[in-house]
Amino acid sequence: MNGSTLNPMMFQTLLLSNFKMYVIILMNLGNNDDANNSGIPTSQTPTNKDKRTPNSREKGEKEIGGQFGHKKHMLPAFPDDEINEHIHHEQTICECCQSQMQRTGEERTKDEYEIEVVVKRRRHHFHETKCPNCETTDVAKIPNNLKEESQYGAGIDALILSLLNIGFVSMSRTKELITGFTAGEVSLSVGYIAKVQLRVAKQLGSLSVNWG
C-alpha cells in the first residue's frame, strides 16, 4: 500500500509547533464546564446558561445496534497497485489420500489493514573524508540529538509526546504502553519520559493565556 511517510523528526517538529495550542486548550478546559458537558449537577448551572433538560425519551421497539434493511458499511478491497504484502493460504496435502495437492488457478482473496511496530537499532557512521587534490580532510559533524554513545530517536520522543499530550496518558502508563508496543525491546524509564516532556516545555517558553 502506497502512502505518504512522515519522518519522525518532522513529526516531532510538527507536534511541537501544535503543542502550545494543546496546552492552552487544556488550561481552558474547565472554563466552560456545565451540566451539558460534564458531571456537574444541573443545580450548579451558571445563571447565564440554560439548564440541561434530562433525556425524556422512552425506549422504542427497535433492538440496539444495526437495523434490518440498513446498508452495511464495509471497507473496499485494495487496488492492486497499493498492496505491499501477499500471504498465500492453501491445502498442500489431500485429506482423502494424503497426496500432494496442486493449485488449480482458482482463488479467493481477502484484504486487511495491519500495523507492525518495528524496532530499529540504527548506527550512524560519521566518516572522515579527504580531498584528493589539496589533501584537506573533513569529518562529518555529529548533530546534537546524537551526542551520546546511544540514545532514543526522534520517533520514540514523538510517540511519548503524543501519548502524554494528545492522548492524556500518564507517564507510568506511557512507559507500559511503549514497552508493550515493542514487545519489551524498548523499556523507557519514567524519568526519561519526564525529561522529554520538560525539554519540550522549555522549548515552548512561557505561555500567555487570555482567560476572557
User: Residue share in helices?
Assistant: 25-40%
- The total of helices stands at 4
Q: What is the averaged pLDDT score?
A: 80
Q: How many β-strand stretches?
A: 2
Q: Strand fraction band?
A: under 5%
- Main sheet: which strands, in order across? 1-2
Overall shape = flat
Order of helices and strands: HEEHHH
Structural commentary:
The chain has a domain at 145-203. The longest helix is centred in the N-terminal third of the chain and has 20 residues, at 8-27. With 212 residues, it is mainly alpha-helical. Helix 1 runs parallel beside helix 2 and helix 2 (154-165) packs across helix 3 (171-181). A two-stranded antiparallel sheet has the order 1-2. Residues 208-212 have low confidence and may be disordered. The chain has helices spanning 8-27, 154-165, 171-181, 190-204, and strands at residues 128-130, 137-139.
Could you give a quick summary of the protein structure above?
By secondary structure, the chain is mostly helical. It has 4 helices and 2 strands.
Distinctive features:
single chain; mainly alpha; 2 strands; flat; disordered C terminus
Write the layout of secondary structure elements.
Elements lengths: L7 H20 L100 E3 L6 E3 L14 H12 L5 H11 L8 H15 L8
Antiparallel strand pairs: 1-2
Helix pairs in contact: 1-2, 2-3
